Amino acid sequence: MTGTPEPKHYRALFLSDIHLGTRGAQADLLLDFLRYNDAETIYLVGDIVDGWRLRRSWYWPQAHNDVVQKLLRKSRKGARIIYTPGNHDEFLRDFLGTHFGGVNVVADAIHTTADGREFLVIHGDQFDVVVRHARWLAFFGDWAYVTALNLNTGLNVVRRKLGLTYWSLSAWAKLKVKNAVNFIGKFEETLSAEARRREVDGVICGHIHHAADHSDFGIHYINTGDWVESCTAVAEHHDGTFEVIRWADRRKLPAVAEKIGSARAAA
Length: 267
Ligand SMILES: [Mn+2]
Known about the structure:
Layout: E1 8-15, H1 27-36, E2 37-44, H2 51-56, H3 62-76, E3 80-83, E4 99-100, E5 103-105, E6 109-112, E7 118-121, H4 128-132, H5 134-140, H6 142-161, H7 169-174, H8 180-197, E8 202-205, E9 212-214, E10 220-223, E11 232-236, E12 242-246, H9 247-250, H10 260-266
Parallel strand pairs: 1-2, 2-3, 3-5, 7-8, 8-10
Antiparallel strand pairs: 1-11, 4-5, 6-7, 9-10, 11-12
The protein binds manganese (II) ion.
Manganese (II) ion binds near residues 86, 88 and 123.
InterPro entries: Calcineurin-like_PHP, LpxH-like, Metallo-depent_PP-like
Keywords: Cell inner membrane, Cell membrane, Manganese, Membrane, Metal-binding
GO molecular function: metal ion binding; UDP-2,3-diacylglucosamine hydrolase activity
């Protein structure tokens, strides 16, 4: 890493899909990011720790510990930390509404920007089944939509209790590599629709390891990306505007390839 970047302070920072506990996690780059970037509120938007992977084989190097310590230290220094678990750290979904070390664990959150807009903050795996069956659900309407969401949640609770792996849309989509771009679009469209359904101004999510900031579906859609390949975070500036930060680019490191195929494999 070259030079010393100017330390930045944001109103809020959003991070997801770090996958600590896997060899893919870019913990060193993330530590470097956390060293130079601070915020009043830090949202951990799911898949921070990879519980599924850890259960199969323990992999927890010092750098992964340092990331956790660094976040807890920020909390002790006054940062508000809100953790919305994803499918890989869904063991934390048994602890919704609790907090540990100053970290609040909630299913999802509403973030209000400096200029008063409201954003739904959620990992996004909750909508896998909707993304997969979007066409049929649209045909059957709202009842089917809500039922599908509940089934998705219920099924995965059962799978978890049985010790089975999470059924992931991403793994399914991986079989259809040609449809990768289509899959990202469908996910973005579904999450945008959910923001509209909740009557907020936009959504901030993760899960598909594809950072974005646009209004292609008529509402503000923001994705935090990941720290496996793209090393991205989303920041809210003090005036309420958002920015996708690509840390590897910022640090002038050789570009980390953003391969749609392998990114999806880990989502
Ligand atoms: Mn995920």
